[in-house]
Amino acid sequence: MKKALSFIALVAARIFLLCSVALFTCSLFSSCSGDEENGKKPVEDNLILKAKDILKDSIVVRSKAMMGPVDKTLLPEGCPLKYYFSWDLKSETPLNIKLKNFSVGNMPVQVWFNIYCRLIPLNSWEKDEYKGDGWIKFTGVNGDVTYTPNQHDVNGEYTDGKGGAGTVIGYLNVNTKQIEFSTNFNVMLMQSFVFLQTIDYSKMDTYEEDFAKYEADLKAYKKEHGL
User: Which residues form the signal peptide (predicted)?
Assistant: First the structure.
C-alpha cells in the first residue's frame, strides 16, 4: 500500500513539474510573441510629430567612437558629434539620419553615413530599461557608408571605399528630449555610441569650439599616458 502511494505521489509530482514547465514555456513564448507583435504596431502620430520637432536639421551630441574594441575618443565625456536629420512621414522608414565627414582623434579615415529608420514602440523588456512615458525606438538597416583616408593614414593602409550594411538602434523620449543610440558602420569595425543624454540645441552654436577643445584635451591625454 505504501509503495502504491509513493508511486502515485511520484507520478503526481512529475505531472505537476511538467505542467509547470509547460505553463512557463507558454508564458515565455507568449511574452516573446507579444514583444514581436508590439514591434509591428505603429507609433502614435502625436509621438511621431514630437520626435520630428526634436530631431530636426542637425543636433550635436556626445559620443564614443570605436574601432573594434579600441575607444578612439579616449576621454570619458566622449567627443561632440554632429548628426543630421530629415523626415518623410509618408514612408515606412520616415527618419533619415546622416553623418558627414566624420573622424575623431587619429582615425585614419573620414566617414559619411546615411540611413533610413522606422519608428516602433518599446517592447516589455525595453520599457523596464527606459521608464516613463514618451519613449519611442528607432531602428535602421542597410545604411550606406562612404569613407576616404585622411592625413592620419601615414602608412597608406586605406583607400576610398564603400559599405552598405550599417545599422542604427536608438531610443528617444519625446517628453524629456533624452536620447541614446548606437551606429554600426559595418566598415573596419567602426561604431559610434551616443550614451544617454538630453539634447541641448545650444551645442550647435559652440560645436566648432567644443570640438577644438576636445581635440586639445585628447592630445594632452595621449601625452600624459604615453599614447
Answer: 1-24
User: Could you read off the pLDDT of 127-149 as tens digits, one per residue?
Assistant: 999 999 999 999 999 999 998 88
d(CA 192, CA 184): 7
Is pTM beyond 0.85 here?
no
Secondary structure of residue 22 in the 3-state scheme: helix
Q: How far apart are CA 81 and CA 104, in angstroms?
A: 9
Q: How far is 4 from 38, CA to CA, in rounded Å?
A: 50
Closest CA to 186 of 60, 66, 104: 66
Distance in angstroms (rounded) separating the CA atoms of residues 73 and 36: 36
Cα gap 104→51, rounded to integer Å? 28
Q: Answer for the pair 204, 170: CB distance below 8 angstroms, yes or no.
A: no
